[in-house]
Design goal:
Elements: E1 10-12, H1 21-30, E2 35-42, H2 43-47, H3 53-56, E3 65-70, H4 74-87, E4 91-96, H5 101-105, H6 116-127, E5 134-142, H7 148-160, E6 165-173, H8 180-183, H9 191-200, E7 205-209, H10 215-221, E8 227-230, H11 232-236, H12 244-248, H13 258-274, H14 279-283, H15 296-304, H16 315-322
Parallel strand pairs: 1-2, 1-8, 2-3, 3-4, 4-5, 5-6, 6-7, 7-8
Length: 323
């Protein structure tokens, strides 16, 4: 069954070191419809790296999937957007929200919120090269540019450039003095700013992101905006997505139990190991599968005690399921 609900209705946020292809495959077993995002891939990694396929390859099962790009050159981003489209990605997303030192040193990410005209150029350049949607993930501001008026101006510029969809993390980014982790929690959430954007730009597709952990919160946000993006909660508690397809996409397909999810992962692990991958590259992503359930600690310990040994393979899950 193909859902008529747009894939962006519910999405899993791009997260560095977390949303790699193994995590995305795991999440796709849990939800067939939620939109998945890659980790941020820089234009330099794609254009200058010898092994750019390591950053770009994905499994066909991961659709719908968006490629998130990091960079500040409209020409380079446009070239990478075309490469991403040719690889088969369903959306090209520009990172204007990451506050890490690594991103700032390259003059992209959240610091680009200070340069709305440049971001508009980036959007327009990508739009000129690809037919898939071009979207922007950004904050509600940065220190020094943190008023709603600043946010309105920023969104006005990228809307004029033809952005198809914006994903708004409802916190400002503090570019000096806070770590990336602190930037996810310390600046206060301002959901009302995102709601106001939807009122001021009713024709623009807007997804809200930041601090959302429960279905009751998701449902409330969806009365105000078009989509909800889940970040850390999707990683810590992936089974939250067990109910996403029936609740938000009208799917009548049978959802998987935790044990069925583990069984579906077994052939995937086997196939990865044939290509010289490591079992822990996959198993590290599933430690939260029993979050909040009796036996969650035992599950984590069972995996962590076994997954780093040289001979680790899919039998770890087979053995767990036999217990």
């Amino acid at each position: 069954m193909t859902s008529s609900v747009p894939s962006y209705r519910i999405s899993v946020a791009p997260m560095m070191d977390w949303t790699d292809r193994h995590f995305r495959f795991f999440m796709r077993i849990i939800s067939k419809h939620a939109l998945l995002y890659t980790e941020m891939v820089t234009t330099g990694a794609i254009l200058r790296g010898k092994d750019n396929h390591l950053y770009l390859d994905f499994s066909k099962e991961e659709h719908p999937i968006a490629l998130q790009l990091g960079g500040d050159s409209p020409l380079a981003l446009a070239e990478c957007a075309k490469i991403g489209e040719d690889y088969g990605y369903d959306e090209i997303n520009l990172n204007v929200g990451c506050p890490s030192d690594r991103v700032q040193s390259g003059s992209f990410g959240a610091c680009l919120m200070k340069e709305p005209e440049l971001v508009a150029e980036m959007v327009a350049a990508c739009k000129s090269k690809v037919k898939v949607p071009v979207t922007v993930k950004h904050r509600i501001g940065v220190n020094g540019k943190e008023s709603y008026e600043d946010l309105f101006h920023f969104v006005s510029k990228i809307k004029e450039a033809g952005v198809d969809h914006i994903i708004v993390h409802a916190r400002i980014a503090i570019l000096e003095g806070l770590s990336p982790k602190e930037n996810r929690t310390v600046p206060p959430l301002r959901y009302q700013d995102v709601y106001q954007l939807k009122k001021d730009f009713p024709g623009l597709t807007i997804t809200i992101n930041g601090g959302i952990k429960t279905h009751s919160e998701i449902k409330e946000h969806l009365t105000k905006v078009d989509g909800v993006m889940i970040g850390r909660a999707a990683y810590d508690n992936p089974f939250l997505f067990h109910d996403v397809d029936p609740l938000y996409y009208g799917s009548e397909e049978k959802t998987h139990s935790r044990e069925e999810i583990l069984r579906e992962l077994i052939p995937y692990i086997r196939s990865v190991l044939k290509k010289e991958g490591k079992a822990h590259h996959i198993l590290r992503h599933i430690l939260g599968l029993y979050y909040g359930e009796k036996g969650a600690r035992e599950f984590r310990k069972f995996l962590t005690d076994r997954m780093h040994i040289t001979s680790a393979n899919e039998s770890i899950l087979e053995d767990y399921l036999k217990r």
